[in-house]
Amino acid sequence: MPVVRDLRVLLRLTNFRRLLAVRLLSQGADGVYQVALAAYVVFSPERQASPAAIASAMAVLLLPYSLVGPFAGVLLDRWRRRQVLLYGNLLRAALAGGTALLVLVPVPGWLFYASALSVTAVNRFVLAALSASLPRVVDGDRLVIANSLSPTAGTLAATAGGGAAFLVRLTTGSDAVVVLLGAALYLSSALTCLRMERGLLGPDPDAVPARIGAALASTARGLRSGLRHLSERRPAARALAAMALVRFCYGALTVMVLMLSRYAWTSTEAGGLALLGLAVALSGAGFFVAAVVTPWATARLGVGGWMAGCAGTAAVLEPALGLPFAPVTTMAAVFVLGFTTQAIKISTDTVVQKAVDDAYRGRIFSLYDMLFNVAFVAAAGAASLVLPADGRSPLLVLAVAGFYALCALALTRRTRKGGVSRETPPFRVRGLPGPRSCST
User: Fold this and answer.
1) Do 322 and 193 sit in the same domain of this protein?
2) What CATH number is attached to the domain comprising 33?
């Protein structure tokens, strides 16, 4: 298999192996920590989880990516990236240890969320440093392969970490133990950094960056100019709007499934956690199948046609499978929505890459990341206003189906007019990409 062969070539590079080990341990810890936070907010016996609490947890997990992300590169061009990875993971290990203590003792909710927010905010710097460091450990001929395989491996590590967290939580019944597992993995990632030389990952010491105030102001101006450029590239803007709407739908239904798992389908904490773990696995399976099928489907239907077909499929199957509010049919809906959401996202990536000038691509994708996460958090907040305690809300299911239908109709109309690309996208996939880290 080409993927296995490419991976063997890369693993012969000592410094690539070391950087990959840092990534796997760090993102594995992220998966553990995110599951620990969700379990504490939703499934702790001493807490009565509500949709509003879930929305708050999602904001803590995702908003740092949106607010800090575009500016992280300014500081990474000033600090040694190996030190960012070392001290970033050490800081997260210490903060996660503090979070474990807060789980054990009665504290105001805002203090717990502040601690969790600190951990996830540092994560943006660590992920950006991992990406920026890759060209320092891989030669140019292998960089495309490394950029494909490394994030995929990190996504798999995060998934494995989440699975391990579910098992530990079900075995011990302690959220604090799960958080401490994440802290131990953060610490292991930091210690692994010590195997690399201090200056290995750059930046070059002779490179003199702009003053930090000027660099931050330049970043803000760059985002504004990116917005202006996007307004002139209507196909990309429409694809991003469709992706935001689909992401909003996915976020709203995620909160519904959390509440159903917690209150409607089982009376035990262990049963609810098991159902939630199954939902996460099925959604991930949908992501995987979408990565396999989308290149083939867009070659036959075009990017716009495939996006419209996915949105239309979700509009039909989501209420058909979701309205019974039964575990089996809802889990089938979870798979379908994971598949359609990721398929539309992959297609959106392609439209944006083709429609946007290369000089603006980085800024547009920074805006894309912000939109991607803000839509999810906004959906959680909106769902918290209409969901009952047990998660059974026909109104939410039908409203989401209506949004999917509107999205499908708009995409179909624009595709016929040429507003979204009907050309075959230039897919050159070496290995299967996981969902973008903007995150899950």
Assistant:
1) no
2) 1.20.1250.20
Q: How many CB atoms lie within 10 A of CB 298?
A: 24
Q: Is residue 225 part of a domain?
A: no
Structure tokens at 294: 């989308």
Report how far residue 275's alpha carbon sits from residue 169's, in angstroms, rounded to the nearest whole number: 13
Check the CA dihedral 416-420-421-422 and report its sign: negative
Residues 313 and 177 in one domain: no
Write out 319-361 in H/E/C secondary structure: HHHHCCCCHHHHHHHHHHHHHHHHHHHHHHHHHHHHHCCHHHH
**Does a structural domain hold residue 435?**
no
Sign of CA dihedral 372, 378, 381, 386: negative
List per-residue pLDDT tens for the chain, 440 residues long. 555 676 778 888 899 999 999 999 999 999 899 888 877 877 766 666 677 777 777 777 677 666 666 666 666 667 888 999 999 999 999 999 999 998 888 777 778 878 888 887 788 788 878 877 888 888 767 776 776 577 767 877 888 898 899 889 888 888 899 999 999 999 999 999 999 998 888 777 665 555 667 766 776 776 777 778 778 888 888 888 999 999 999 999 988 998 898 888 887 777 887 888 888 888 888 888 887 888 888 888 888 899 999 999 999 999 999 999 999 999 999 999 989 998 898 888 778 767 877 666 656 766 777 788 888 888 888 888 888 888 899 999 999 999 999 999 998 887 666 555 544 444 443 333 333 333 33
d(C-alpha 126, C-alpha 418), whole Å: 40
Query: Residue 438 carries which DSSP code?
Result: S
User: Dihedral angle at the C-alpha atoms of 217, 222, 223, 226, nearest 10 degrees?
Assistant: 170
Parent domain of 369: 230-427
**68 and 175 part of one domain:** yes
22 with 186: CB under 8 angstroms? no
Q: How far apart are CA 374 and CA 371, in angstroms?
A: 5
If asked whether residues 188 and 336 sit together in one domain, one would say no
